[in-house]
Amino acid sequence: MAHRVGITETIFRDAHQSLWATRMTTEDMLKVAEQIDEIGYHSLEAWGGATFDSCLRFLKEDPWVRLRRLKAVIKKTPLQMLLRGQNILGYKHYPDDVVREFCLRAVDNGISIIRIFDALNDVRNMETAIRASKEAGAHVQGTISYTISPVHNIDSYIKLAKELKALGSDSICIKDMAGLLMPFVAEELVKKLKAEVGLPVQVHCHYTSGMASMTYLKAIEAGADVVDTALSALAMGTSQPPTESLVAALQGTPYDTGLDLAALEPINQHFKDISEKYKSLEGPRKVDTAVLSYQIPGGMISNLVNQLKAQNALDRYDEVLAEVPRTRAELGYPPLVTPTSQMVGTQAVLNVLTGKRYSVVPKEIREYVRGYYGRPPVPIDPEVKKLIIGDEEPITYRPADDLPPRLEEARKELFAKGYEYYEQEEDVLTYILFPEPALEFFKYRAGK
Fold it and tell me: Which residues of the chain have pLDDT under 50?
């Protein structure tokens, strides 16, 4: 199984999303973009995830312009993005016409590889994005949102990967958002994916639990084709393992990445140099083994802390940590990734603070129980379901089937608010995904 291993560099997306609240500016990226392009990475993850929202809301940047500016100087290395299936880059489902248009525009603006996942691993929520991305000419990476529960196992992940292949995926990604993938489990899962699914396999881990580098090594020995790393200035903690460490570990072996450590050093130094300006955003970069007990991703832990601080109830943190797995089990063991991690976490906080479980239920949880986010891995606890939606029965069809086309209506709405807000067709998509932040940004852009 020995072969040269590809590296996807996450410094322009997941690394700063994990450590700097997604606040790195395009200017700070462009200062080293040409140098990064010369390294020989398999791909550069540079878009998607929370970058779109953060560009508009906090940086007053156009995410589409960011993509075009990066593509103008990064000519050799494929640009990669993370797409939340039918959620696109938001927190709810969008109609099929919006998903199709978004995938087409993403490719037109410079994306070559689209990693597509769904928080529930519900393939119905990925199929439109997979087909649209293929039609647009992208490499489609069907994604397994990896988690641990009594119903998630190797066989369930192989079945999911086969379904993703049948839809047209070109490769499979194991997306370990919480750092839960153990080294020997990774070895078995990768071996079976390679043998039974027959597509290239990429592994994406976060360092939260401290296992990710070990997991990568076992996955590589088992045949993983590509792994995701971050330059050391933005590695570890809730980010990815360090690029340089893996490159060094594999040098002179049959898995040698072919990357030059000396060429990486000045690029990494740039990110060290700019880190001071982002220091106020960075949390502690340490291993948090609580994730192994509670299976809570690092970003979710910080959300829980902030919610408790806002209620002056930080002393109940341990109660909430214990409540999260219980709530998750009752809700059908959803993987804890955006948006289900935020939903389960908020419900757990409410269950603890109110003193009466499910006496207060957010709208998103009601919609989830009604089936409007997709199919839970196992049925929701009947008593909890009754508490939340009474005798109503959840839908069993694809949630997006209820959503009427939105593009034309949104275009008319945007024009009605003023032609000065419209500069490019992509603005309509921006407005659909994040209406209020989009309008604020359009006003700023127009000098209003």
Answer: none
